[in-house]
């Protein structure tokens, strides 16, 4: 299942009994987790109940339907833990974990309960300087490790921790990092308020970007001023949003700002954790409001439904020059409802212009280079039919498998058209005549990254002087990207033999959990026909006399929000002909088109960038005899920080010519 | 050859002919490299000479004796390279490298000539914005790659480049980095002025700390204000210092500041490159002054001579608990002229104090735990003889090989003394009586890092209540360390299977090319007898009732100079008894002692730190049932930057109990 946001929880709920929970054993700090995205079938808990903290699990589950799990303490909170002077030697005996693991079956534990670590212990840690109060530090460590081991023993999916104080991030993170390597299946969730992003960032770095440690976003009454301060959290692997009852107004609605934020979070399938009450009616009202809020979201469009399985799923860019595309790939491309309409419009406009300039009545020659299974041939034919301007068509492709279909169409639907099918690489074919219009679809997500410049330069000799190339030009774009999700996906590709390779490779990916950290800026532009080829002559003697499609540019960015930069996200814009544009740049996106996802160039080591800092992204497109490759690096002009050059000499990632 | 600074050049010189060089073919930008550290035997160049740039090599070698190599252009500088609008296509033909590789034999090329890359080309690069002048950039790249390939073809040991401008560090470094991976044996030297450290630092990072790229320090007339601004260069892999003739006064002497800097550099065997004249007399006068300057340095002390082979040579700390020391190790330790004298003084002082407090006339019981081949036994006996206070001596060791020697001494030189030899681990031995004095030498370079606390806690039951432990206490110290040399040495230990391990291991090393970036600060102190053991009782039931030698502390440092931090350098101070101190802390060093080199805790990724920044170093000493290990990390309080925790859970480096 590519790119989907897997829910950690499976179904659980119990018959609602609607009684209020005035049971004195009920622990009011139990949080009830509400998964707003689905109503799951019931499942019974196979366990008895003992009158202690575990009763809260049972109680919590018994009071309500449709809540997916509870967050509950997994040990009895001991008042003596509050004492900073407690002798550690006594603590181990007194604080032994209450209850028994036989209350529920493992499948219940692992589906229903998120363990809450003794918060008191961490508050003590937060208040003290652990390097001066080493016993406190050791005590918290012991409590935490015991509880985490117990949680792990119960196969709990996660435990929840309070956030560190600003002063205690390091010892806090080190405790976690040390413990997490021993706790098997259980993950660690840490509550953060939106303005605690830097603390989270430090925790993450100290813990070496462990995927077992995730933030939970706790919404305060006053949300941060800038939306980007909350928005950046959606690039983080947040596992849930905590909503306290006091955020809700008397009619159980939220402020506009809170509501907007929640709606954003629903797009990422982020769970909601309701807190601050055990009153069943209140919980239901809160939940009901959230359900309403979600239902107000427009349903996913057809394109979004198509894209959803690919959210944050990394794909390698195509190498159509080296490999022949398969049938399935052609099929996906051909299904795009927008792209070929744009091509048809472009050919139409070009034909009309040619007709207006020409006195001859003979048909115009259109060559489709890289015809594949014919979508551009069809678009050209439609343009000709619609404009009533006759054309003579050549369909050129090097893929013998595509040829089968092209010949089939020639015999059937194109039998009345002047279509000639040529089995050749466009760079080698010797045409019987030159083209008025050269039509191609060689663009990748970054424009030139599937070697369109090299192919079209090679095919330019097929075009009459003054002839038209469709596309006429294309430009690549970049922005610094924040996406811990993408970073952790890239990390899964790392091998010990080539530890840098995965981070020096570009990926085509529909980035879902991520954010641009600056405006999107132009990188390279290529124009066809290539004006360099008009001026300069081939003499066949010197390799350097072929047009040079290598590039180097420095793109300046201003950081919009203090965040982590995990790489660069790239797009393209393309002029098919005159004002017929095709774009995956978010601001000029060709609505409804789904042929291209953005491209991502990762950074080997994520870098922390601060609001207002000026970054220079250095970007190279390199060409040698056999290959094309990109290199990239980041220079922080404010701090002087530089990254190494990524993908030097194409050592990790190259496009073969 | 551990740790020495290998000279890249072997001997070469030629008969002096003392003629001035008014030859019109002589290129005045030839630099003559003078190796001040040695006079090497003559060697003839086996080559004829052609009248072009290579003649300068011959000329340069012919004019003077004792110069080790020349820095000379390896291609003819073409005036048309200065044009920014030159058509690249012509350049390749015109700029072909002049001369032939048959002028000299390869052994001469590789020993005598450092190639000077066309500086004009790099000046053009420095003056232009390469992202806007891509042709210039490509041209410089081409020139550079051609020249570097030619240099590589000639097996030149190095080529010399001018420094980048502040604006062009990135394209400059990328050119280098790209080319260097292709140039085989040949290294790249870049000239920097002392105030260009940040540019060098960026080049180094962009080039992934390549060991093939080194700086050459070019001294300006006005040296930087703070000595640390030049001093930090000695932590860098600088390959030479360039001295222009105009730095010399009319009597061919240098300013005091320049002279001092040169003398510092001689300690690191850094080569000197003389420049700015081809007048033989002038060159000789300059050289003669430098020889004098060097001769003014005091000769190496015996300790320095002993240490020299170990400069910057990484050793693993001993694990005496786990391994038995071998004879050679014992021998090295026993040769220390200071250490055992200090022990003797301490035992002497302790015996006198005991005698003064005691009314009994029976001998005092001295136990040497970890007696090895007996140096502490000897020191104790000398103390007893000297103080005329009789002692009864137990020599305890677990190493059966050491026992052989102890028994030999007992039969021979100690035959009249009351010495009992015990073959046992000090933690297990059941003594027939308790000791008045417990003598041990279990300290490592970081004090506690050879598990002295654990051993002495285990041996404390051998000591009478109120008895004396020698040593009484010890304290470890740390400072942030700049040393590219140490970093590159650590890098040589990196394996692809465990890429972090080498960087998470401590090394014992006599850091030579390096600098402390802040004052040296206290870390942990251990006291013996351990007062915790006096208060707390064993009950055999709970592991946690043994004394806890784990520690955690946060050590603040203020950065004294903008530089790169490659790790932490550690020392110890120890009180043997009362005011008998033993120390490897630079400020309190026990002069003449050579038993311990400092310890280095590396950082996996060097970090750039700026003058005045506040760093918090978090340092842990962790103990579990089977092992002791350190963890460390750095937090820059000014920028919020944190490193990961190093050596988490002792995954890379541990001391076995």
Automatic annotation (TrEMBL), chains A, B:
GO biological process: one example: regulation of DNA-templated transcription
Instruction: Specify where the region named Disordered lies, as residue ranges.
Output: 1-28
In which residue ranges is the amino acid composition biased (Polar residues)?
A: 7-23
Q: Show the active-site residues.
A: 441, 450
Family annotation (Gene3D superfamilies):
Divalent-metal-dependent TIM barrel enzymes, Hnrnp arginine n-methyltransferase1, Vaccinia Virus protein VP39
Pfam hit, one? PRMT5_TIM
The GO cellular component terms are: cytosol; nucleus
List, for all copies, the residue spans of the domain called PRMT5 TIM barrel: 67-294
Residues the entry annotates as binding S-adenosyl-L-methionine: 330, 339-340, 425-426
Keyword annotations from UniProtKB, A to Z: Methyltransferase, S-adenosyl-L-methionine, Transferase
Under InterPro entries, the record lists: Arg_MeTrfase, Arg_MeTrfase_PRMT5, PRMT5, PRMT5_C, PRMT5_TIM, SAM-dependent_MTases_sf
Query: The PRMT5 arginine-N-methyltransferase domain covers which part of the protein?
Result: 303-470
UniProt family annotation: Belongs to the class I-like SAM-binding methyltransferase superfamily.
Entry protein name: Protein arginine N-methyltransferase
């Amino acid at each position: 299942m590519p790119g989907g946001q897997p829910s950690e929880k499976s179904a659980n709920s119990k018959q609602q009994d609607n009684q209020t929970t005035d049971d004195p054993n009920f622990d009011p700090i139990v949080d009830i987790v509400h998964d707003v995205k689905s109503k799951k079938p019931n499942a019974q808990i196979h366990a008895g109940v003992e009158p202690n903290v575990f009763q809260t699990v049972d109680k919590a589950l018994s009071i309500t339907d449709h809540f997916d799990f509870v967050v509950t303490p997994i040990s009895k909170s001991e008042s003596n833990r509050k004492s900073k002077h407690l002798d550690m030697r006594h603590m181990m005996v007194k604080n032994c974990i209450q209850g028994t693991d036989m209350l529920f079956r493992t499948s219940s534990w692992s589906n229903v309960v998120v363990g809450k670590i003794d918060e008191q212990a961490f508050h003590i840690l937060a208040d003290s300087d652990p390097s001066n109060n080493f016993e406190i530090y050791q005590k918290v460590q012991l409590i935490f490790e015991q509880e985490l081991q117990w949680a792990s023993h119960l196969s709990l999916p996660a435990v929840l921790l309070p956030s560190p104080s600003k002063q205690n991030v390091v010892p806090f993170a080190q405790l976690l990092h040390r413990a997490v390597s021993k706790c098997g299946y259980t993950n660690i969730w840490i509550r953060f308020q939106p303005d605690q992003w830097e603390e989270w960032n430090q925790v993450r770095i100290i813990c070496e970007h462990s995927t077992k440690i995730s933030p939970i976003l706790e919404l305060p009454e006053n949300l941060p001023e800038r939306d980007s301060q909350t928005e950046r959290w959606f690039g983080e692997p947040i596992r849930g949003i905590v909503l306290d009852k006091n955020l809700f107004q008397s009619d159980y609605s939220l402020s506009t700002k809170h509501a907007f934020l929640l709606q954003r979070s629903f797009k990422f399938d982020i769970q909601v954790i309701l807190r601050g009450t055990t009153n069943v009616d209140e919980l239901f009202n809160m939940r009901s409001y959230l359900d309403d809020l979600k239902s107000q979201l427009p349903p996913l469009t057809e394109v979004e439904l198509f894209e959803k399985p690919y959210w944050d799923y990394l794909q390698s860019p195509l190498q159509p020059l080296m490999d022949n595309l398969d049938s399935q790939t052609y099929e996906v491309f051909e299904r795009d409802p927008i792209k070929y309409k744009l091509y048809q419009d472009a050919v139409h406009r070009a034909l009309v212009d040619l007709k207006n300039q020409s006195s001859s009545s003979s048909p115009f020659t259109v060559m489709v280079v890289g015809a594949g299974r014919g979508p551009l041939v069809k678009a050209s034919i439609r343009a000709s039919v619609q404009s009533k301007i006759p054309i003579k068509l050549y369909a050129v492709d090097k893929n013998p498998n595509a040829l089968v279909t092209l010949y089939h169409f020639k015999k059937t639907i194109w039998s009345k058209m002047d279509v000639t099918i040529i089995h050749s690489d466009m760079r080698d074919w010797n045409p019987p005549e030159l083209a008025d219009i050269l039509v191609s679809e060689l663009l990748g997500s970054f424009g030139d990254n599937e070697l369109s410049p090299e192919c079209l330069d090679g095919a330019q000799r097929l075009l009459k002087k003054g002839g038209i190339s469709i596309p006429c030009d294309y430009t690549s774009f970049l922005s610094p990207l924040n996406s811990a999700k993408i970073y952790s996906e890239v990390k899964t590709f790392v091998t010990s033999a080539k530890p840098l390779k995965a981070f020096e490779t570009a990926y085509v990916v529909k980035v879902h959990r991520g954010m641009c950290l600056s405006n999107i800026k132009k990188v390279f532009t290529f124009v066809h026909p290539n004006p360099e080829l008009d001026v300069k002559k081939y003499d066949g003697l010197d390799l350097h006399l072929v047009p040079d499609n290598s590039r180097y540019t420095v793109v300046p960015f201003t950081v919009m929000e203090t965040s982590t930069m995990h790489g660069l996200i790239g797009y393209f814009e393309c002029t098919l002909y005159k004002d017929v544009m095709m774009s995956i740049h978010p601001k000029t996106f060709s609505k409804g088109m789904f042929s291209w996802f953005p491209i991502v160039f990762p950074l080997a080591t994520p870098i922390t960038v601060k609001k207002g800092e000026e970054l220079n992204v250095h970007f190279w497109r390199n060409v040698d005899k056999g290959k094309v490759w990109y290199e990239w690096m980041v220079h922080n002009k404010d701090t002087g920080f530089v990254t190494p050059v990524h993908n030097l000499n194409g050592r990790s990632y190259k496009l073969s010519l």
